[in-house]
Amino acid sequence: MKKSKTLADLFPILCIDETTHCVVSKNADITAAFEVQAPEIFAVSDGEYDTLHDILIRATKVLPTGYMVHKQDLFIEDVYTPPFGSEFLRTSNYVAWENERHFADRPYLRHRCYLYVTRPALPPLKRTSSQSSLLKRHLVPKELLDSRTWAEFVDVVNQFAAIYQDSGKIKLQRLGPDELLDNGEQTGLYQRYFSLSLDDPTLHDVELTDGLKVAGQQTYTYAISELGDFPNEVYNSARLEQFSTDSSHFPISTGSALGMLLPFNHIYNQVLLIDDGDALTNQLVREVKRHHSFAAWSKENEVSIRSKDAFMEEVKDRNRRVVRAHYNVLVFHRDPDVADTYRSQAAAAISKLGFKPKLASHNAETLFWSCIPGNIAEIGADNLATCFLEEATALWNTETNYRDDFFCKNGLLLTDRFGRPCMVDPFFEPMQRGIIANRNFMVVGPSGSGKSFTMNNMVYYLLSHGIHVSLVDVGGSYKRLCSLMGGRYITYEPDNPIEFNPFYSADLDPDEETKDALANLLMALWKKDGEPTSKAEEVTVANIVHEYYGATRRARQAGDELFPCFDSFYEFTRDTYPAIFERNMGSEKEFNLNNFLYVLRPFHADNQYGYLLNSRRNIDLMELPFVIYELDNIKDHPVLFPITTIMIMNTYVRKLFSVKGVLKMLIIEEAWKALAKENFAQFLKWCSKTVRKHWGSLGVVTQEVDDLVGNAIVKDAIINNSPIKFLLDQHNYEKRFAEVMQTLSLSEKQANIILSINKGKDPNRPPYNDLALLLGDYCKVYGVEVSRTAYGTFTTERQEVEAINNLAEAHYGNELESAVKGWARGERAGGYLPVNSAGVPLLHPNGQPPKALNGSSQT
Questions:
Q1: Which residue ranges are recorded for the region named Disordered (predicted)?
Q2: Following DSSP, what letter does each residue of 249-279 receive, concatenated?
Q3: Is the pLDDT of residue 857 over 60?
Q4: Which of 30, 61, 36 is nearest to 392 (CA)?
Q5: Is 658 left (phi over 0), alpha (psi -120 to 50) or beta?
Q6: How far, in Å, CA of 572 to CA of 544, rounded?
Q7: Closest to 416 in 3D by CA, of 109, 723, 834
């Protein structure tokens, strides 16, 4: 027969006070409850851990003697459920859908942290755990304290909370009746505790047969409550070896070993009782005198004398605060065998900290009962160890999960360091919070670090959220993405040369910004880099542009279907403008019109570059959401390359002023020869300081940080004005990372986090790479992990790209989407390649793929 307790009869909480929202126990203990928003794990420096520790100490010191602090961290296993019904997935293509399927049922740990400040009605040191209300048959409520005591308690609690809030490091939210009790919309605090769940609204009974079972789950409790269980020294932070290197130190809080780093169901309780230091000192003085009487008979008395003398010296001379401390870890699972595995892992974690793990076999139920929110005064003196406040709070868990949501409307799909999928918004939300001042960014990733793959993933999600992207590429890394997203791919081929039309305007009345951009383009075509220009020349070219559009508009009104392009502009300048120039009293000394026409003649009609500026096809680049300028075939051409870069500048500037309501992003991908040109460098400097005013963003992607520092203008434009930085694996620079720190103005904290990239990767996850995201002083590492189908869409590995192209040609009529999906399933042009559950092809022991089957694809 099962032995069970009915909560309705034994529940130790009397009520929630309507005025103060305090929890009142049946023992008349008063408790204020808070939910804690702690810093994110793996994003805190050694110095910040010291600051956090100091906050805990200062806040606790305002509490009077006899008060108790109970910090309770709930860690609950969950699995990711994709939002397949969301508008984003309904309107997105197969990549987003396949990524969500990839992460479906991915396990992760949910964390909630609560903090309770209790004023016990009776001194807890006069109670023992055997006096728990769980073991009493009848409870007699005690008379509540008078109003002055309530006012004093509320005042103390407000002081305690203010120290946390004013720090800016930890936030406390006071819990009211709606959060403490189930309100029909969200599960209450007590329902969560008695269901060992964050969503179950039921108050389950407790079973005491075959150990403690709560909500049908087998539990084990490890307690740390005796001073002899403590190691000789306790620090508030420790070195996390798996993320550290020979030249970097990655810190983690000591308490995280029993918090976020225990990757399974558990509750970590941390308890403090503010002790009377003077009373304890007087007691120790009496004990020392007694030890002196027996010192001659036993050496143990001499040791005890020295220990107690040292303790009293700390209290008196250094004004150390004495507390009684208790810690326990409760692990649980519905499967007893799994719960037993958790028990072993929890014991190992406690041992690794230097403590002696002690399984609570006879008092597990009373520990569970006393840790009910608001009932901590029942912990009992036998479960409390005497120590100093600094050491006691060093064991607190001070971190939580990354706070990135599963979905946000402007997010990039990444994972946290535990593998939980999240959508990270680097461009909008940080701007709203004032973390960054503009949306410019840079991406630094050495060869082989996954830079191009990461950029494909980023650009895909940016486009999916409606952002306009103009991308300058060398190397063809985005061709398949362009096809998938319906973009315009502009490149040079002998039978299909690159072409633009900066003169085209649908209404023939472009705004002044567009005219100014066109005038700058003409000046760049006419003058060599570094060649001086006069004010008269600038004014004259601007006037030619103005007169040209006026003449074109009048011609249209007269019925002449004149097409705006360079040819018509050149002919207007040659045939019509000389008379206007003369009428305006222009002179050859101020502006050499013949020289202007002569220099621009190669771009007219059937001359050498007549195709370049007369396009009738690329006339809508300003309106297109996605345009790629692929410069690989012309990167060394002395004429086409600089003119193409000028056209890119011109088109992007026109887009900035003509397209409203969306973010316009210009990404320069490894086009460093363009950056060597003075005009383009000046353009980047202008962009970096101006585009934010027009809802624009400048992004630069490079392999080497050194690429950015050769030109002072570029360095000033890109590095100093890019508050958003994505850094991939930098282990090649580990020995000289000080140079990288100086170039990018990194703090030591950021450097340690960046050097942890790709360290301690989970071998049980599908293949992924890390990246560090820097937003001002903020820095976190994320994983770039996608579905096998998305991988096939984004990969730039030549062998894989060729395999997909061959499959598309052989079986899918060059249809990309079907070919990528087939490749992800293991299909190849010559047969079928088996894949494992993660979609990774299975190889023979010799590393070669298995022989194709039947010469045809199979699924």
A1: 840-859
A2: --EEEGGGGGTTTS-SSEEEEEEEEE--HHH
A3: no
A4: 61
A5: alpha
A6: 9
A7: 109
SS3 1: coil
Q: What is the pLDDT of residue 316?
A: 62
Q: How far, CA to CA in Å, does 223 sit from each of 268, 362, 737?
A: 10, 12, 44
CA 16 to chain centroid: 38
The DSSP output letter for 170 is S
Kindly tell me if the per-residue pLDDT of 851 is higher than 50. no
Confirm if 775 and 425 have CB atoms less than 8 A apart: no
Question: Token pair for residue 657?
Answer: 């002023």
The pLDDT of residue 547 is 95
Examine the pLDDT at 24 and tell me if it is beyond 90: yes
pLDDT of residue 800: 93
CA distance linking residue 661 with residue 467, whole number of Å: 10
pLDDT for the residue numbered 639 = 86
Contact residues for 481 (Cβ-Cβ < 8 A; gap 6+) = 456, 459, 460, 487, 793, 794
Q: Return the percent helix, strand and coil in the chain, to nearest 5.
A: 40, 20, 40
Q: Which residues contact 135 (CB under 8 A, 6 or more apart)?
A: 366
Two structure tokens written together for 195: 């269901």
Kind of pairing between the strands at 4-5 and 441-444: unpaired
d(CA 786, CA 773): 18
Q: Of 750, 696, 752, 761, which Cα lies nearest the Cα of 725?
A: 750
Query: Does the structure show a pLDDT above 60 at 560?
Result: yes
Q: What single string gives the DSSP state of each residue in 488-511?
A: EEE--BTTB-----TT--TTS---
The C-alpha atoms of residue 374 and residue 839 are separated, in whole angstroms, by: 50
**Other Cβ atoms closer than 10 A to 708:** 21
Per-residue pLDDT at 111 exceeds 90: yes
CA distances from 488 to 93, 160, 248, 496 (A): 18, 60, 45, 14
- Mean pLDDT taken over the chain: 86
DSSP, residue by residue, 658-682? H--SS-EEEEEES-HHHHTSHHHHH
Tokens of 717: 């434009």
- Asked whether the predicted pLDDT for residue 295 surpasses 90, the reply is no
Residues 2, 14: Cα–Cα separation, whole Å? 28
**The pLDDT value given to residue 275:** 86
Higher pLDDT, 679 or 141: 679
Residue 310: pLDDT above 70? Answer: no
Cβ atoms of 315 and 277 within 8 Å: the answer is: yes
CA distance 213 to 486: 57
Residue 772 has a pLDDT of: 97
Phi, psi for residue 450 in degrees, rounded to 5 = 90, 25
| CA 13 vs CA 188, 328, 342, 616, 638: distances in Å | 14, 21, 30, 79, 82
Spell out the alpha helix ranges (H) of 439-490: 451-464, 479-484
641 contacts 673 by C-beta, under 8 angstroms: yes
Please give the pLDDT value at position 8.
Answer: 66
The C-alpha atoms of residue 309 and residue 137 are separated, in whole angstroms, by 45
List pLDDT tens digits, range 614-638: 999 888 888 899 999 998 888 888 8
Of the candidates 336, 377, 343, 375, the one whose C-alpha atom is nearest the C-alpha of residue 68 is 377
H helix intervals, 217-321: 277-294, 299-317
Q: Check pLDDT > 70 for residue 403.
A: yes
What is the end-to-end Cα distance of the chain in Å, rounded? 54
3-state secondary structure of 272: strand
Residue 343 phi/psi, 5° resolution? -60, -45
CA distance 275 to 319: 13
> Which pair of structure tokens corresponds to residue 390?
């600094």
What is the rounded distance in angstroms from the CA atom of residue 650 to the CA atom of residue 502?
7
CA atoms within 13 A on the CB side of 417: 23
Q: Are 565 and 503 in contact (CB under 8 A)?
A: yes
Measured distance CA(829)–CA(822) in Å, rounded: 10
